[in-house]
Design brief:
By secondary structure, the protein is mainly alpha-helical. It is built from eight helices and two strands, in the order ααααββαααα. The protein has helices spanning 2-21, 24-27, 30-36, 43-47, 60-63, 65-92, 99-119, 128-148; strands at 50-53, 56-59. Strands 1-2 form a two-stranded antiparallel ribbon. α6 packs across α7 (99-119).
């Protein structure tokens, strides 16, 4: 089982490296969204959302429907990818008292390294907001693991 989890870790890290190596134009999904969602489903409720990000307000009005939808998908990808990374790290670490925090620290290091790598790619920027989003995904996933992992209790003998 650990080998499978280690392979998953390698896959996540490779995916992050490839993704942060691509320019925005290379990884945009706007043309696919336009083709797959010509009727703009959920446009009305999405038009009510305004998200403060990097000193700007991101919205359907500001970006347009497809670019706003892509923004939401990209940010969700940050959350879930780093949540999955934290979970995989947690499962690979030996069972010890600070396992949760070590997995979180390693996730933070990976998020920071990913943003730095992204900053070296043309047309891309690194933001602390993305690192914070990555960490929020890691915290949520690790918390869910802790909540649903049975704890061993020490039996005391009299």
């Amino acid at each position: 089982m650990k080998k499978l989890v280690a392979i998953l870790l390698i896959g996540i890290i490779a995916g992050l490296f490839i993704s942060s190596s691509q320019t925005y134009d290379q990884q945009t999904i706007v043309p696919d969204l336009e083709r797959l969602l010509p009727d703009r489903p959920l446009e009305e409720p999405l038009a009510k959302l305004e998200i403060p990000y990097w000193g700007k307000t991101i919205s359907v009005e500001e970006r347009g429907y497809y670019y706003f939808l892509e923004f939401l998908i990209r940010k969700a990808a940050h959350f879930f990818t780093f949540g999955a990374l934290a979970a995989v790290l947690y499962w690979l670490l030996p069972k010890m008292r600070l396992r949760f925090f070590l997995a979180l620290l390693l996730s933070f290091a990976a998020a920071s390294a990913d943003e730095f790598h992204q900053s070296l790619t043309g047309g891309r920027t690194a933001t602390w907001q993305d690192v914070a989003l990555d960490l929020s995904g890691a915290i949520v996933f690790l918390t869910v693991i802790r909540l649903f992992t049975p704890r061993r209790t020490r039996r005391t003998t009299c």
